[in-house]
Design brief:
globular; six-stranded antiparallel beta sheet
Length: 155
């Protein structure tokens, strides 16, 4: 198999193709393989009641942070990941215009599964922790998905 680009390059490619993240105003950055930061600001379309964010929006950000942490590590060995399960604890309500930072980190990387954890904080409210989560992800070769074609279009 061809030499894969480094993890930061792969994350940049992922940012270009991640329609969900772009639609929701989410920005992913790599701290190091296995550790990421996802940010977003709550907009009108994220509300479920006047001024309050829908829990599904936070769940989406959580799954993204957990998965991106796992993905960034899997990238280093030519693999992708898919969510097996994740849980979230909602600790505080999130409001319109809150800026959120999700910090995801791999806790365990085994032969077939990766476990990651994440915390979502709100810097606009003194770094209040609004949610915590834990996720499990399946590892599989990048050649099993179209992502490989984005990296090596000549084949």
């Amino acid at each position: 198999m061809e030499q894969l680009p480094d993890a930061p390059t792969l994350i940049a490619i992922y940012n270009q193709i991640n329609q969900y993240g772009r639609t929701n105003g989410m920005e992913l950055s790599l701290t190091r393989p296995g550790e990421v930061r996802y940010t977003m600001t709550i907009r009108d379309e994220h509300l479920s009641s006047p001024g309050t964010c829908h829990g599904g929006v936070l769940a989406g950000l959580m799954d993204s942070a957990l998965g991106a942490a796992a993905l960034s590590l899997a990238f280093t060995v030519g693999e992708l990941v898919s969510t097996v399960e994740f849980k979230i604890n909602y600790l505080h309500p999130v409001r319109l215009h809150d800026h959120l930072v999700a910090h995801g980190v791999v806790e365990h990387s085994g032969k077939t599964l990766v476990v990651s954890s994440a915390t979502i904080t709100c810097p606009t409210r003194d770094n209040l922790v609004v949610a915590r989560g834990l996720g499990t992800f399946n590892r599989y070769p990048a050649t099993k998905r179209d992502f490989h074609d984005l990296l090596f279009p000549q084949e």
